[in-house]
Design goal:
A five-stranded antiparallel β-sheet has the order 2-1-5-4-3. The chain starts with a strand and ends with a strand. Helices cover 47% and strands 13% of the residues. It has one domain: 3-Layer(aba) Sandwich (Hypothetical protein yfbM fold), CATH 3.40.1760.10. With 160 residues, the protein is α+β, with helices and mostly antiparallel strands. α5 crosses α8.
Length: 160
């Protein structure tokens, strides 16, 4: 199956409600407040930051929060942890993403660098198909963050 980047737009009150209860998150949250970027999350992170997720500690601020928000929701849960960014942090992510034009994102794409840095999922030698896959998921994520920012929502992030 692989590691999928999952994103949930929520209110800050819902973060408290969903902490410790992933079932509630899945059962109560409308589908339109969920998206995923499939396995493109690490590639998106690398293109935006120049670092793979293995080096996420070297990244500061909003771009780090795209994959690893600072706030863990349920550290006692077995499996991949869920993290969240506050409404303010989510707006900072949206603003940071909006500063990067689509053309700039594409120009930052370097299949050789992605491969050399062992960026997941390791498809970067597949030519334009890999760039298209990455770019389509990036646009989806950027739009999702913009919608969250416009609606004053926080973001729950899970990679797993």
């Amino acid at each position: 199956m692989g590691m999928i980047g999952s994103y949930y737009r929520v209110s800050e009150n819902e973060i408290k409600e969903f902490t410790g209860s992933r079932d509630a998150l899945y059962e109560k949250l409308p589908k339109e407040r969920y998206t995923d970027v499939d396995k493109a999350w690490d590639g998106i992170f690398f293109v935006l930051t120049g670092k793979s997720s293995q080096d996420f500690d070297d990244v500061e601020g909003a771009m780090k929060w795209i994959v690893f928000p600072d706030n863990e929701m349920d550290s006692g849960y077995e499996g991949s942890p869920y993290f969240y960014s506050t409404v303010t942090e989510t707006q900072e992510v949206a603003n940071a993403l909006n500063k990067i034009t689509n053309e700039e994102f594409k120009s930052r794409y370097n299949s050789k660098a992605l491969t050399e840095n062992d960026v997941y999922p390791g498809i970067w030698d597949e030519g334009d198909d890999a760039l298209d896959y990455l770019f389509d998921n990036y646009i989806s994520l950027k739009n999702f963050y913009n919608q969250a920012a416009a609606e004053n929502q926080a973001m729950i992030v899970s990679i797993g």
